[in-house]
Amino acid sequence: MPKSKLGQAMEYGLNQWEKLTVFVKDGRLELDNNRSERAIKPFVIGRKNWLFANTPKGAKASAVTYSLIETAKENGLKPYE
Length: 81
Description:
- The chain is mainly alpha-helical.
- Helices cover 69% and strands 0% of the residues.
- It is built from four helices and no strands.
- It has helices spanning 5-15, 17-25, 34-50, 56-74.
- α3 (34-50) packs antiparallel against α4.
- It starts with a helix and ends in a 7-residue tail after the last helix.
């Protein structure tokens, strides 16, 4: 039945079908975002510590630095070297 939970779930899936299958059309896309989730995990873990940055400029500098490091690692570079 269309109004049942299963019917609603099926309707949602059909309405999102193009978005759900876009990775099939472009082989560069990944099925999940696990790599992205792993890349931001250090930020999530450190979030409480960053609340106590001395200044907004210091917090921004930290964010830029971490972003550069993670981007370098994602591109196969070794930022600590």
